[in-house]
Specification:
Trna Endonuclease, Chain: A, domain 1, alpha+beta, 6-stranded mixed β-sheet
Length: 398
């Protein structure tokens, strides 16, 4: 009999009866914090900064986001990949939906609509070894590996096929969504039909990065499904054994979703003013370059001088304020870059924007908060206002 444990990100812990095997598996997955209690066989289980659904034997653990409107979450998930389209917030979910079954239902409908006129076809360059000539001979391959023998021939040719990037992405998302527990029978049937329709498409190899695609006139009918496929494939998916238990799962890191959104949206807004933005900018704290640092976002002028540094922090705010360690980290960034201002961006909590003046230094540390519950257009307006504050000259430089 399946037992369902439902948790919400940021809520308090629940006391749960677990076997030793379930305890070990959940500890390894990291989707929840599990700690012993004084009572034998009962554990304190609390959601972390991951959301998703995990099956550990007969136990299903579902962690829901603290963002109650799932449309907002899908907007954040998709923005970094397809920002122009996700402004429209096309995926409509209700508050009663679970995220992953809902995504599966929407994707299955979009993909079925995209492929109902037949699969998209295109040219793909194929390298092969054949007994007859087709296309072009790969001379280097023929001479070094075939020792100049007349057959078989190392050839390269262009094949007009359905085995192209767009169809591979649809198949990858279909196969991943079929592993999700608790999707409806109708959704599962649509996904199974999609898998049959895509039977001549190569399934992605485990561990390999997915191919990039570009929107064109030819793939216009696929584009909504492809953008949602990118959201689905951004999640971590796994299937393995821990001891005697079969473990499957599907989860997102909320901190990564927030960081990607802040870097993409804020980077866009700052770049419109001048220069460009770079993410995970490589720095070293010490003169011998032993201690590495990578701020989430830096704003560079046209001559590549760093004008501003930003770090995104998705974490629970303490009653007394934001964590001090974040300020120390930003202080180090500003010191190395020679900046007078550093900016920390949080998901909205209890504090308004605050500026900390560092003692005995011309250096200010600013904390900002974005309200993720806003409509997409309003949230992007808030990001633009934040970019205005970051781009404004500091008082000492006016």
């Amino acid at each position: 009999m399946t037992t369902i444990l439902s948790l919400t990100e940021g809520d308090g812990a629940q006391l749960v009866a677990l076997t030793h095997g379930e305890y070990d598996a959940l500890n390894q997955l990291g989707i929840v914090d599990v700690t012993h209690t004084a009572e034998t066989g009962r554990y304190s289980v609390k959601a972390t900064q991951k959301i998703g659904a995990v099956s550990v034997g007969d136990l299903q653990v579902i962690v829901r986001p603290k963002i109650t409107d799932l449309n907002r979450l899908v907007f954040l998930l998709g923005y970094a990949h397809s920002r122009d389209v996700w402004r429209d917030d096309k995926v409509r979910l209700t508050e009663s939906d679970d995220l992953f079954p809902a995504l599966a239902a929407v994707f299955s409908r979009l993909a079925a609509r995209a492929t109902e006129q037949g699969l998209l076809q295109g040219y793909r360059t194929v390298a092969d070894t054949l007994p007859v000539l087709r296309g072009r001979i790969r001379v280097g391959e023929q001479m070094t590996r075939r020792y100049g023998l007349p057959v078989p021939l190392a050839v390269e040719y262009d094949d007009f096929t359905v085995d192209i990037t767009e169809n591979r992405l649809l198949l990858a998302a279909t196969l991943r969504l079929l592993t999700i527990p608790r999707i409806t029978p109708d959704t599962r049937r649509r996904l199974q039909r999609l898998r049959l329709v895509l039977a001549d498409v190569t399934a992605p190899a485990r561990g390999r990065s997915l191919p990039d695609w570009r929107p064109t006139r030819l793939n216009a009918r696929y584009q909504d499904a492809l953008r949602l496929a990118e959201v689905v494939l951004a999640a971590q998916s796994f299937e393995h054994r821990v001891g005697g238990l079969v473990v499957t799962g599907f989860m997102f890191d909320m901190w990564r979703i927030f960081e990607d959104f802040v870097c993409t949206a804020l980077g866009e807004s700052l770049s419109r003013r001048s220069g460009r933005c770079a993410t995970q900018y490589p720095l070293h704290l010490d003169e011998t370059s032993q201690i590495r640092m990578r701020p989430d976002l830096v704003w560079l002028s046209t001559d590549r001088t760093v004008q501003a540094v930003v770090d995104a922090k998705y974490k629970a705010e303490r009653p007394a304020g934001f964590p001090d360690a974040d300020l120390y980290q930003m202080l180090a960034y500003c010191t190395v870059l020679g900046l007078q201002d550093g900016h920390l961006v949080y998901a909205k909590g209890n504090e308004p924007v605050r500026t900390h003046q560092v003692r005995r230094a011309e250096l200010r540390l600013h904390t900002h908060a974005l309200d993720l519950s806003l409509e997409p257009a309003a949230l992007l307006t808030q990001v633009d206002r934040l970019a205005d504050r970051i781009a404004a000259p500091s008082p000492s430089s006016r």
